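step: validate -> pass
step: tokenize input -> pass
step: predict -> running
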Amino acid sequence: NMGNAVGTAAIAAIDTDETFTFNAGASGNLFVAIGTLSASGASVVLGNSDEVQFSSIVADTLTIDGTNFGGDLTFSGAITTSGMSITMGGNASALTMTSTTTETFSLVSMAGGSLSAEIANVAVSAFTIVGTEDAGSLTISAFNYSASGSITGTGGADNVAVSAMSLNTTDVQTFTLDMR
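step: predict -> pass
step: emit ->
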């Protein structure tokens, strides 16, 4: 737990067979940079930090709690996980994901702010994405799914490109798109 820390928390690499937990706490003006993360599970609380960056992640499960987060969250490298859940608070400004492979994916953007989410190169089975009704924006490109999912857009201008991949007769083949 980083408590009320300010400055930079830079972690080059984490490799554990256990669960990795990072809690930015009530820290403000904190920049968090985590390079390579390999763990059986990972739980990250973004706290009040300003900016958080991840390079690459391999974990069975990944949970990101950005309920009180007020900055930019960037996944600049590949994410490989069986389950991934992200909650972004009303003060968060941006989410960028460049390459993700997961079985299940959930993104919830809470009301109160204008989160701009840019998501590219995602391969997923089941997913749920819920944008805020406030003036945010959602840009999703190269999002491929193989089972079912739903996307609820924001109150702003959204751009979504989704493709079904490798569907067979045993998969649930539903897709719900609500652009408000």
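step: describe -> The chain has a mean pLDDT of 84.
step: cleanup -> pass
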